[in-house]
Amino acid sequence: MVVSRKQELPIINIYIKGTRLKQKDQFKYLGSLISSDGRNNSEVASRIAQAKTNFQKMKTVLTNKNISIRTRRRALECYIEPILMYGCEAWTISKQTQKKLEATEMWFLRRMLRISWTAKKTNDTVLEEAHTTRLLISKIRKRQATFFGHVMRREKLEES
Question: Which one in 6, 15, 83, 115 has a CA-CA gap of 20 to 30 Å to 125?
Answer without folding.
Answer: 83
